[in-house]
Amino acid sequence: xxxxxxxxxxxxxxxxxxxxxxxxxxxxxxxxxxxxxxxxxxxxxxxxxxxxxxxxxxxxxxxxxxxxxxxxxxxxxxxxxxxxxxxxxxxxxxxxxxxxxxxxxxxxxxxxxxxxxxxxxxxxxxxxxxxxxxxxxxxxxxxxxxxxxxxxxxxxxxxxxxxxxxxxxxxxxxxxxxxxxxxxxxxxxxxxxxxxxxxxxxxxxxxxx
Length: 209
What we know:
- The chain is an alpha/beta fold.
- The chain has helices at 2-21, 25-52, 74-82, 152-162, and strands at 60-62, 87-92, 101-105, 111-113, 119-121, 131-135, 138-139, 145-146, 168-172, 195-198, 201-204.
- A seven-stranded mixed sheet has the order 3-2-1-6-9-10-11, sandwiched between helices.
- The protein is globular and about 45 Å long.
- Mean pLDDT is 93; it is low at 1-5.
- GO terms for molecular function: 5-formyltetrahydrofolate cyclo-ligase activity; ATP binding; metal ion binding.
- Keywords: ATP-binding, Ligase, Magnesium, Metal-binding, Nucleotide-binding.
- It is an enzyme of class 6 (ligase).
- Belongs to the 5-formyltetrahydrofolate cyclo-ligase family.
């Protein structure tokens, strides 16, 4: 049964990567802009409400550096740091089969090639995020995520929960990654996301902080 689930997930990954690669550049550029706009509005609205209620606001966001035609959030990350005074951190793979570390990033941070060819900050300052933006290849309307098969984010989200650290997870995906109607079965270790945002809007309703 486990082998069948893994085989099905691998086939879905291949198909979704092909769909993603087939999108026109003008559509992905526009789509990424829409994602950034919705994220900015969502966070600003929630922070304003929490401030009015005298409650603690989220201050630290774990984002990701785009690769393999993922939505590009970088202009928003700059805006969050420079205009909103928020802390932004990026994932770093320290060990295979271990949770990710989130290290501080600013627009002035030097970047270097990490594992899998992903750009990572040279910073060594680790952070505990209040919000985790998760690169998502495929998703269900219930918040199940199909990633790249390495399990880093599943281990990371599970570790944060084990530490009793309060956070909100949001999958960032292209709408073509919708697994509705597909025979996708999440694995037992898969961590369900609190929400999923795509270029077509919130595929899983926006969470209230």
